[in-house]
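chain below, 1896 aa
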Amino acid sequence: MSNFYEERATMIAAGDLQEFVPFGRDHCKHHPNALNLQLRQLQPASELWSSDGAAGLVGSLQEVTIHEKQKESWQLRRGGSKIGEVDYDEELYVAGNMVIWSKGSKSQALAVYKAFTVDSPVQQVANVWPTKYGLLFERSTSSHEVPPGPPREPLPTMFSMLHPLDEITPLVYKSGSLFGSSRVQYVVDHAMKIVFISTDPSIVMTYDTVQCLHSVWVLRKVKAEEENAVLKFSEQGGTPQNVAPSSSLTANLRSLSKGDSPVTSPFQNYSSIHSQSRSTSSPSLHSRSPSISNMAALSRAHSPASGVHSFTGVQRFNLSSHNQSPRRHSISHSPDSNSNSSFLAPETEPIVPELCIDHLWTEAITNIREKNSQASKVFITSDLCGQKFLCFLVESQLQLRCVKFQESNDKTQLIFGSITNIQAKDAAPVEKIDTMLVLESSGNLVLYTGVVRVGKVFIPGLPAPSLTMSNAMPRPSTPLDSVSTPTPLSKLLGSLDEVVLLSPVPELRDSSKLHDSLYNEDCTFQQLGTYVLSIRDPVRNRVTLELSNGSMVRITLPEIATSELVQTCLQAIKFILPKEIAVQMLVKWYSVHSAPGGPSYHSEWNLFVICLMNMMGYNTDRLAWTRNFDFEGSLSPVIAPKKARPSETGSDEDWEYLLNSDYHQKVESHLLNRSLCLSPLEVSQIKNEDLSQNLSLDSSTLLFSHIPAMFFVLHLVYEELKLNTLMGEGIHSLVDLLVQLARDLKLEPYLDHYYRDYPTLVRTTGQVCTIDQGQTGFMHHPPFFTSEPPSIYQWVSSCLKGEEMPPYPYLPGICERSRLVVLSIALYILGDESSVCDESSHYLSRITPAPQKSQAEQEENRFSFRHSPSVSSLAERLVVWMANVGFTLRDLETLPFGIALPIRDAIYHCREQPAADWPEAVCLLIGRQDLSKQACEGNIPKGKSSVTQVLSSDVPSGTETEEEDDGMNDMNQEVMSLIWSEDLRVQDVRRLLQSAHPVRVNVVQYPELSDHEFIEEKENRLLQLCQRTMALPVGRGMFTLFSYHPVPTEPLPIPKLNLTGRAPPRNTTVDLNSGNIDVPPNMTSWASFHNGVAAGLKIAPASQIDSAWIVYNKPKHAELANEYAGFLMALGLNGHLTKLATLNIHDYLTKGHEMTSIGLLLGVSAAKLGTMDMSITRLLSIHIPALLPPTSTELDVPHNVQVAAVVGIGLVYQGTAHRHTAEVLLAEIGRPPGPEMEYCTDRESYSLAAGLALGMVCLGHGSNLIGMSDLNVPEQLYQYMVGGHRRFQAGMHREKHKSPSYQIKEGDTINVDVTCPGATLALAMIYLKTNNRSIADWLQAPDTMYLLDFVKPEFLLLRTLARCLILWDDILPNSKWVDSNVPQIIRENSISLSEIELPCSEDLNLETLSQAHVYIIAGACLSLGFRFAGSENLSAFNCLHKFAKDFMTYLSAPNASVTGPYNLETCLSVVLLSLAMVMAGSGNLKVLQLCRFLHMKTGGEMNYGFHLAHHMALGILFLGGGRYSLSTSNSSIAALLCALYPHFPAHSTDNRYHLQALRHLYVLAAEPRLLVPVDVDTNTPCYALLEVTYKGTQWYEQTKEELMAPTLLPELHLLKQIKVKGPRYWELLIDLSKGTQHLKSILSKDGVLFVKLRAGQLSYKDDPMGWQSLLAQTVANRNSEARAFKPETISAFTSDPALLSFAEYFCKPTVNMGQKQELLDLFSSVLYECVTQETPEMLPAYIAMDQAVRRLGRREMSETSELWQIKLVLEFFSSRSHQERLQTHPKRGLFMNSEFLPVVKCSIDNTLDQWLQAGGDVCVHAYLSGQPWEESQLSMLACFLVYHSVPAPRHLPTVGLEGSTSFAELLFKFKQLKMPVRALLRLAPLLLGNPQPMVM
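prediction:
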């Protein structure tokens, strides 16, 4: 039979013929054309080549003319590299001015991925190459480029660019010179052309046009010393004259024409390549997306062979200026001037190179110089054994030259072999099956692997090339069989890592070849019709053929093997055989397998066996079991004639053939057969003559000598497949083959091993093929061959018992599961932590084809059971290691349950308390989806994560249309309703803060009022209310902070500021613009600004925003400019303004709009906080005269802009202690007013800004201000604070201040009223938290009446605040501490405000005292607010709340007038703000009530500023909708000092004391601290209990606190750890001692923490008290009735669909149950057990064990693997390591039910003992003494042997059994065989000659 394979193997059938049309061509017709009219006018007439004007550039592609053909090109590459993804093709198609990138495969529809359209036609540039590092450019040289004369250096010809924004730099090369020293020089040789670049390995192939030779170079980054060498070399001005000829850069051999003017060419070329790299529309430059960069390069220029003559070679892509090519205009838009000539002029320094090429190989110089022998196509391919070849097609010679190359042992260099030539017209690699397809000049398609020919390719549907062939070859009736085979995804053979690239060299294939007469005579069949012209676009195993009639077809070459079993076997055999033999074997198999009409999926294994055994020398026709192989009717026409003609009558043989067939045996053993009581048919023994003839092996065959090695690796594959429960069928097939080989090799132990595994399959007798003794010598017994069969089950079992075992042999890359199991058992059971660390584990012996160390050495490697103490962490080590190796839950499910048990046990242990920072894969493996989701969210950019979907509120759109947008619609309702679930406080806040609706003006018209006066009255009342409305936006900004992700295509909605009113009862509109009363000018300008800021602050920092969107929001109307200014500032505060292009910033500033400048300068500075960014510094300096050189022109900068710029400087230099900045700002605090009205108005705010800025620059540096001691900063500030003589102005600005101001007479003393606030706060910030007593004493409030008169009471507030901030650690949250700040004189004499009569005293000024008192108290309260900001500290809250209440009562007291209502209002506002700071984000109800009360007060002293303060307090209280809180870091305190400066504006345009824009800097102090638990199953926010552990501090020990999340966390630096507590949710620990990064990233992503409900628990929302959880009553008393719980209740405690349906179908009782009842109870209790113990994954194991025990009881075990598993389970639970774990953690839940296992064990023992008594003992005795035994007992005997670990008979004689007389003697003898005592008890009667077995 073997001979017909030879005939059959002549051809290989290619499947799946498809017509191929590039997808882009079709898509172009529908793509919206960019050719609208303006473009059309730009096009020169010659470009519009379509006949009718309407069709546009792309035109109708139906009538494709030659000219159009030129316009399109495309290339394909492989898409979908991820494992498990279907591979498909990606296509990049270029036509005219469109680029279309699409992807799709035959199983998926094609889809466009991206399409680009550009104005000028897209060039596929000849000289751009993608490399591993970046792009490589070649400079095109015109044919008459001038060689440079002696004075000038030659210009480089190759350049590299590593990133689209980098410079282009020249390439250098390194070559050996004549004297052996290597030198590095620029590539200046015009004759060098690149023909191919590969990224892996990173090599370049070039062609020398003069010498006509190809060379290969390594491409790498330049080393530092080489950079210098190049630069030195170029300075010497030498030309590379001394290069050796062999280096193929022989510049001295070239005779190039001289005489053209040297100026025109080189530089113009340089500039054109320059401009081209910036402006061409080559797709890989335009969209820098990762998938294009390694595109199979801008491949060959794909002109069809019938192309035009004029466009060949270099000329077609010429870029130089003198060749006026028609495309010139699109590439270099610069006029042909010499603008770049200075670029490489000799005196300028050369550019530093980035990439270098080292010479590797040059082809041998041939005798005849073949002109034009440049390779037109180059690719790398590897053969079936992974050897790599570099192939290049020289078309003029019709040759494919292949060079073998390999990496040297140290992996540093490539070694090239010799060239092999193959005659070929075209070729393409088929990477998926490691072959290449070659088109011979005769038109045949031939498949090669490396340089070995595999066979011709037969394409169904295309006529074969030669006439004779096409008739003789019968066409297969249907090619369906090969089309419909499912393709497996696994990689087939060898490593397929080599990315095969097509070489994008311009085609040298011109149409003239077709008219070459010689060419025609060569192929006689041309006239007959179509034939293949060329091969293109290979992807994986698909390739396109271009036919001579212009059409294209895409074919798929068949895989090497489709079934997993055959693939694994082939890989193993290939691994073990020498390379040459392996290639021959694979080629032979491939040609058999892929013959036309080849086998279908199912019979592939049979074909493989026959093919393999034939190659080993078997005669498969004569072998009984191979002869019956049924090829399932897939007999192709080739085989059909070989069968005898069927006779009409039929014969007996046919019947016997049926009876002996596998099919018949399967039916006979079928259950149905038994139930129908069909008696088995007597099968007459196969004709005896066959058996009697002894078959012998042919020793001359290819694989004969390698049979033992192949047998051993196939045995290892068999053991590997036993570890995959899905491969059961494959194992059956493999056993047949192994048994046959084991018999013939006379390997008894192996036969015994297979018998014990599959007793019914392995007969004791069978057909033996003898191998001549003489020939056994030829057989090569490899050193790794062991006489004892390696068994993975046995190995694991021994480990569990703690016995020693030899290392387990494994095949790298093939038996990966075995390796995994061995190492994980070694780690987890033996506790050897090093087992998974080092590569060379002593638990595994790697099998290598090379000879190995002697057996004796291996024996010493046996390891003993080592004890390891750190058991608890072993489980974690195991799980982390398995996840790193890529082991997933799906793999775990396919492991047999006994082997998987230790791994599942480790997983169960880890699940309880996993570390929070484990990677996603580990969390998935241990079944904690909550953690894995958290881990994976961490890597997803914000826009796409599911978190935002969880926490985005879905407000029904209907409501928004009716009500005006008040700017608060985007708040996250779901989370807020969880935080504040009891009441509607959020709606109330929203009502208080909205400014988009008209207010209600309620004025009663008294009879004496005329109508006109009444209208005025109403408008005056409205004006009062508007003061409040205009103050609302700042608070609203706080409330909606960072709550919205804008849509990039729509402008940001800014709610309008509504200043109208409605008067009841008729709801008439009241308007301020009626002219009845005087309204201040510009009243709303700042209110609009704040409104803009509030809208902008809604944008979350994680949103995707770009410069264009910011500009797009610019309003059309001028009156909205103020809002836009605020919007810009807000973007700076959330960090988006850094994206705004510098050009636009400049644009806004030149407009000269004051507000825009303020917003922009503050925004940009906030975005660059503390970076000392130079460009921003320049920007700000222009607006600060003091930072400009004294001679600069005076710029007229508005005062407020100067203030903003000064604060900006403070922000940019925050914390840097930059000396120059500090010096200037120090002087600016006391800047005197200038002579002409400059600097005269609002001086206070400027001085304050300078002070704040100075404080920020030196923030917290205290006394260690390095290098500033000579500035005397603190002394100077003290002087500014208390007054004194002005010092002489130092520095460069003294000229300006020579003449004093004409308006303001200050004399030569400091004006303390101006400088004090700034200086006080500067001191506070410089010495912040330093606890510096001496500085603090300066700030002590004066304690004599005389001194008190000198200080403004307001400044006492600031001094007290400053003093407390410096003495940070002394602040205590009680009213006693607050009062302690008040000096004694005030305390003793201050009136308590409630008294009626005033004490009279002549020398005390009561007014001064009471004012000082309230301000000092307010200052102390404010410092308390800073100290406990965002902490929700209860005592601080109570203390502040008391003072707030006090101030409220003072206000209504009769003698409030002494203190002054204004002062009391200020102090109340300050205390309210402090209260809000402490409770920031918490939405505390008491504070809300205070705010609401103050909101209603509108008359009297209540001005704009107080409203501002009250609503800021309200905003801080609900900061970010409860998601944000305040931080107390230095930087935050600085920002809050700016924002909450306790002097509030008197009216809406008041910036005299403090610039209003600074109120928004609170954003810099806000930090996300809300933790929202999200249930991972339902994806909704829920409640969960947290336990927060505080670190110990000087005030308190380490403490724990329980919080119900969602909640605001305390500041992270105070915490030690956070834990999600049970019992409802799985515990989860976040340890902050390792660093807060993990928690910070969670909080910044909306604080989503995924949690997972435990089984049987309900969420807190559904069951607040916890009474309904998992049948709370039944669990308490675990009695038997509770076990048989009703399956309906299961839905309460698990959401796993598999468990629910199991309960539904297997645990529901039906009417007449009978004996099924017991089974049902068992299932119910197992299910209950699994769910309550949280081990649902054990359900299949329980059931499998139960089924196995029942099957054994019915004596129906046909294979013993399940028994092995039960044995392993029992051994695991009795293993030493497991017992120790139980002792260390007694509380841990049992992993498997303790009652189930003993029952299983008992019933197995019973069954086997009954069998022994019923005559099994005879069988066992026969087995042990080596005599034949009854067939009927086969399976039970095997079960007995396996379960009791009975040793094989061959081990027994060594002991000498027969002579034993007593059990003790037996016990002693069996000690070395490691047989368990209970097994020995059962064997003792047999061995001692005692008839009765001693059953315990």
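DSSP finds 73 helices and 44 strands in the chain. The first helix runs from residue 2 to 8.
thats it, cya
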